[in-house]
Amino acid sequence: TGYITIDPGYKNTGATKSAITFLDGEEGVLNYRGYSIEDLAEKSSFLEVAYLLIYGELPTEKQFAEFEHEIRTHTLVNEDMRKIFEGFPVNAHPMGVLSSLVSAMSAFYPDANAQNSEAETQLHIIRLLAKLPTIATWSYKKSQGHPVNYPQNELDYCSNFLNMMFSLPVAKYNVDPVVSAALNKLLILHADHEQNCSTSTVRLVGSSHANIFSSISSGISALWGPLHGGANQEVIEMLEAIKADGGDTQKYINMAKDKSSGFRLFGFGHRVYKNFDPRARIIKKAADDVLNKLGINDPVLEIAQKLEKAALEDDYFVQRKLYPNVDFYSGIIYRALGIPTNMFTVMFAIGRLPGWIAQWKEMRVNKEPIGRPRQIYTGAPKRDFVPMSERK
Ligand code: CMC
């Protein structure tokens, strides 16, 4: 069977050629379709970036108006999906609910299993982009014992999501432009990150020609893990634990250095970035700005800053090139926006959706073969079957 090279975790194995995202881990560079993340976060909107990732170019005014209009007209979710949702327990994790309901979309749109035309695929893409925020807000509403909100299609993408989250039938919610702008920036920073764990999952599942909803649902499940997108929830829980423990950051740094503790400093380290994570830089500054603008004094921010400083001065972290990653400060902003901790990874999923879609589409358009890694067998040699009555 030829030569098999083992590379656990694919640390040095390229799985595909891709024209979507450029990442230079040594220099801390991240570009979507050639545009720097710094520029996009400052000057663009999340839907514009979604268009760029999926279709390859920034949209003209006309293209953008059409794209946004299409999304607006698909924000409503089939009422039968609500019935599925109602069966979940109130304490269900919102990520479990999200991946299940996106998977359920494949049952509601079974034509996605067929060999789709470009127009049909386009409709599935629009449905995903339009419905994910609506579905995401249901979990929060249920946790509060409140009725779900229907989308308000005169609102832009981020404001619509915030309105579905926070508006109540008894008290209209006015979307604060500071909040909506901060959300827009966070979603842009999460929109793609080349062949990370969840994206590779989407491509691998999709490589069997599984439908787009099932492929994206698998990506959501992969994102949930604490070593990947789930880290943003872990970070805030860790910072809160440090606060409750009297703010002793050194104790947690020592614990992270001690391999036998099994504890890692969440929000630190990255497979590819070895000098800094450019997203973390932008988010750190945004966290400061947003808290200032909203007049919030969050003691957890102080703990985060203290922890970051101590880690960056510690030999263990310096030698291993462990720097704060995108998840380190994002939770502090989400908290300031009123998003509950157990929904942080859902926010990551909403942001990453255009990237998953773009990567799924690229894989199919390029007619990539089914993903099928090999192995080196290390189990028992061939042996004879022993009937159960003779087994010791
Ligand atoms: N705390 C303490 N030690 C760490 C940490 C950490 N957060 N991260 C890595 N190390 C150590 C690790 O023990 C190893 O030490 P040694 O060489 O002595 O065995 C060395 O640094 C290299 O780590 P690795 O686990 O081989 O690196 P990796 O590329 O396989 O893992 C990572 C990358 C992000 C999974 C890891 O750094 C980690 O677990 N970080 C915490 C979780 C986290 O913040 N994840 C979010 C990543 S960014 C956004 C995203 O992907 O969603």
TrEMBL record:
Keyword Isomerase: no
Record InterPro entries: Citrate_synth-like_lrg_a-sub, Citrate_synth-like_sm_a-sub, Citrate_synthase, Citrate_synthase_AS, Citrate_synthase_bac-typ, Citrate_synthase_sf, Citrate_synthase_typ-I
Catalytic activity: oxaloacetate + acetyl-CoA + H2O = citrate + CoA + H(+)
Keyword terms: Acyltransferase, Transferase, Tricarboxylic acid cycle
Pathway: Carbohydrate metabolism; tricarboxylic acid cycle; isocitrate from oxaloacetate: step 1/2
Entry-linked Pfam families: Citrate_synt
Coiled-coil parts of chain: none
GO MF term set: citrate synthase activity
Family: Belongs to the citrate synthase family.
Protein name in UniProt: Citrate synthase
UniProt source species: Dyadobacter fermentans
Taxonomy of the source species: Bacteria, Pseudomonadati, Bacteroidota, Cytophagia, Cytophagales
